[in-house]
Amino acid sequence: MKALLLLLTLAVCGWGQPPRSRGPSQVLDLISVKDYGASGDGVTDDTVPIQNAINALIRRGGGTLTFPPGIYNLATVTTDAYGSHALLIDGGLHVRLIGYGATLKYQSTDNFARALEIRGTGKSNIEGLAITSANPGVGTGISLRRPAFSYHQPVADNAFRDLSIDGFNLGLEVGTAEGNQVSENVIQNIHLSNNRVHLIQSGASTFNITYINLSFTGGSIPNQVFIDLETGTATFIRPTLEAHNGTIGIVTGTGYVGPASFLGLYAELTGDSTLVLKVLGSGSFISIRDSQISMFDNTGTAADPIAKVDLSAAAGGSVILEGTNLSNPDGGYKAIKLPAVAGPTITRVQGYWSPQILYSGPLVPRVVTVSGTGIGAGANGYSASGNTGMSVTNVVSGRDGNSCTMTFTGGLLTASTCH
């Protein structure tokens, strides 16, 4: 009987079976940057010991590197064939950096270097770190790139969360001009503040990037851009934009197609030269849905409104504002500026609009579909005026909430259908 029980026990425990391979979820290696000599005292240059710890983690095949609370100075920049950086995660899978309460402080004056570069790395995580520049407007905070097609694996299936990036020339770089694959990354709960360009997405093979709960705040650096979309597809869920005078909230590059989707956007714009969206691409597809855009300044007149959504360079594509409320509580007149050339651009507006939101543009045929409640002029809630340019005042649905499709030719309303 005892022998039988012993045999059963050995069978349950896997006696005689080959050892199981260790999968990604079983990577248990846990090391601290302090184990490699980093001090985190805000005085010592911790670049080399942190890099040594990262390299050790990659050699082990993955694991977790922790940063105890403190300020870790990054004063050493390394240059190789693919660029300059302070810290580099070079290839590898299942690499995890955790630093709640820890700050990486970029001390270099090298504007072309990256404080933290993730290069050819997959299935990895970075959490909890604050990354700042000691010299406002200098360097890049975090970069995700694959500098050559043959360089390791694509930068894919990574997750970045609970980070803050402050004071750089370029805050977060997703993809680069080399155009090699950066895809299926999730970037969540990131606060970006006082960067010249807070977020840029570029590269011909950058696609399916998901941004969740990103917040953008201006600062002392002038003429900031919060989101610069040059190429690729992207989804933004609940982004928050707090823009001051001279800031562009979202801009698309001249070659941008997309699509890019913004769901639950909340924007506060202060200052007459602040834009929520500027489309430079001739065929961009942008949608902003279920969002709130508030403009806090009293500038602009009915004859000369201030453009807050500038589509004047677009010739094709589609821009949709659906379920989006635009409010102008301080008065003045604001505008959606339409393209300067004929094209298939369709702007669909659904939501509640302040009475001082206008459409303005040149003499071109186009169709604008709008619906919503809250404002109106004329029998169906719109009016058109002038033959030297399209200046359509209070374009929205009828006051009863009907939806209207209107065609403008030569600056005048030539056809409309309200439902």
Can you walk through the features of this model?
The protein is mainly beta. Helices cover 6% and strands 45% of the residues. It has a 24-stranded mixed β-sheet that branches. The termini are far apart.
Largest sheet: 24 strands, mixed
Instruction: Give the amount of beta strand, in percent.
Output: over 45%
Oligomer: single chain
User: Can you give the helix content as a percent range?
Assistant: under 10%
Helix count, per DSSP?
Answer: 2
**Gyration radius from CA atoms, angstroms:** 26 Å
At a glance:
It is built from 2 helices and 41 strands.
What secondary-structure arrangement, pairings included, does this model have?
Layout: H1 2-12, E1 30-32, E2 41-45, H2 47-59, E3 63-66, E4 70-74, E5 78-80, E6 83-90, E7 95-98, E8 102-106, E9 114-119, E10 125-127, E11 130-133, E12 140-145, E13 155-156, E14 159-166, E15 170-174, E16 182-183, E17 186-193, E18 197-201, E19 206-207, E20 209-212, E21 215-217, E22 225-229, E23 234-237, E24 240-243, E25 248-252, E26 260-263, E27 266-270, E28 275-279, E29 285-289, E30 292-296, E31 306-310, E32 318-322, E33 325-327, E34 334-337, E35 347-350, E36 357-361, E37 366-371, E38 383-385, E39 390-393, E40 403-409, E41 412-418
Parallel strand pairs: 1-3, 2-4, 3-7, 4-8, 6-9, 7-10, 8-11, 9-12, 10-14, 11-14, 12-15, 13-16, 14-17, 15-18, 16-19, 17-20, 17-21, 18-22, 20-23, 21-24, 22-25, 23-26, 24-27, 25-28, 26-29, 27-30, 28-31, 29-32, 30-33, 31-34, 32-35, 34-36, 35-37
Antiparallel strand pairs: 5-6, 36-39, 37-40, 38-39, 40-41
